[in-house]
Write a sequence for this structure.
């Protein structure tokens, strides 16, 4: 028989139970995280069917690799977001030839609504996000846009250059410097 | 490329995490990761730092059938009449599948017989690449266990649907089967009766979610003889 899961079971507890083959724990994990992960996937993959396919892959992977999860390497949600982003980027790069992803003009650089972005709402609830938001604000607008387009939308350097109408070399340097500044700021 | 330079490693980890490493370099670095602890640390460090940025993506409720698909892909779905679920059944399905493969390879004496013998078995084979799915129907458990032998993700927006082609009758759907991993499909008593007069199974490519008409609408991409075990 399955043990009842307490409503407050932490993600760490759920992963530990997944590692023992407890399918109810996977369901609970899904209920807690699927919407956040689907949002991340959808932003990269644009198409709902692709994002759904990726979501399935993520949970299959989480179930199979739950025993390899190490809290020392990061929180459960961080781990799952990493799996999700890598899966989404692999799908996006693999299918480039068969799928027309959104037109560069469809992307709205974060700069436009950064002050009203969801990141600001999330920052109010979460200290890590709040710190990241402060650090993002310290970046130049173009660096911030380049970083967000690459990280959140899964764009290649070339695609970012298309969206921001900037030379490729400049974009590469925005992304690199933006990320290095972020890292430096976050470690302070 | 040298991966023992910490600065280079950190730069590669950064590009890998954000996703801007070009295709081949990305695949190469993924291989390095599995062998290199410093590389894994560098990646974990960037992932931890940047993960909060993912909260800038607004949560979106996934399509309703997503969870059912995950269950199907993992073979943890509770059969309709089922008593217990989950990992035990999944492991039994895997064990039974492995046992059946062992039979095929003629090494049965190396493995223990599974809990229940499959009543019918079919192996779906791609003439070009070899076996793709192992399908086993269990009479007592009233379920059809699907094991993917070679990953074959369905094309975008499509799904694989499995059909019985009974003697002198129209095709009857057994449900959707995954392109990777395992699944357990319920078999009703009626389906088992139809299976008894079926010599051939077929797999068609249907729109995601399955045939809208109850009959194959897409191309039949595989057929496989159904063998009584």
């Amino acid at each position: 028989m399955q043990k009842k899961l307490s409503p407050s079971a932490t993600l760490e507890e759920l992963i530990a139970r997944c590692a023992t083959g407890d399918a109810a724990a996977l369901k609970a994990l899904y209920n807690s995280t699927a919407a956040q992960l689907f949002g991340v996937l959808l932003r990269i993959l644009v198409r709902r069917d692709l994002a759904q396919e990726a979501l399935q892959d993520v949970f299959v992977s989480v179930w199979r690799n739950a025993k390899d999860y190490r809290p020392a390497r990061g929180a459960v949600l961080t781990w799952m977001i990493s799996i999700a982003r890598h899966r989404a980027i692999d799908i996006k790069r693999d299918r480039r030839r068969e799928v027309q992803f959104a037109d560069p003009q469809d992307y709205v650089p974060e700069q436009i609504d950064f002050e009203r972005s969801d990141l600001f709402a999330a920052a109010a609830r979460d200290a890590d996000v709040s710190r990241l938001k402060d650090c993002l604000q310290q970046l130049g607008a173009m660096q911030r846009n380049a970083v967000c387009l690459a990280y959140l939308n899964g764009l290649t350097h070339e695609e970012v250059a298309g969206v921001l109408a900037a030379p490729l070399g400049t974009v590469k340097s925005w992304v690199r410097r933006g990320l290095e500044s972020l890292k430096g700021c976050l470690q302070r | 490329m040298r991966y023992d330079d910490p600065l280079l490693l950190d730069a590669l980890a950064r590009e890998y995490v954000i996703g801007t490493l070009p295709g081949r370099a990305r695949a190469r670095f993924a291989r390095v990761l599995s062998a290199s602890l410093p590389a894994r640390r560098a990646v974990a460090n960037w992932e931890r730092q940047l993960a909060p940025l993912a909260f800038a993506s607004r949560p979106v409720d996934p399509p309703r059938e997503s969870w059912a698909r995950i269950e199907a892909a993992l073979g943890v779905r509770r059969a309709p009449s089922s008593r217990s679920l989950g990992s035990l059944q999944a492991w039994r399905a895997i064990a039974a599948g492995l046992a059946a493969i062992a039979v095929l390879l003629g090494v049965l004496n190396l493995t223990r017989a599974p809990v229940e013998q499959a009543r019918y078995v079919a192996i779906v084979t791609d003439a070009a690449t070899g076996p793709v799915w192992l399908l086993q129907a269990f009479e007592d458990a009233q379920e059809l266990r699907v094991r993917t032998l070679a990953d074959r993700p369905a094309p975008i927006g499509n799904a694989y649907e499995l059909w019985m082609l009974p003697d002198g009758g129209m095709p009857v759907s057994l449900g959707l089967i995954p392109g990777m991993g395992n699944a357990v499909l319920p078999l009703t008593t009626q389906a088992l009766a139809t299976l008894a007069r079926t010599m051939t199974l077929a797999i068609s490519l249907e729109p995601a979610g399955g045939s809208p008409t109850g009959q194959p609408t897409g191309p039949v991409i595989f057929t496989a003889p159904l063998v009584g075990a």
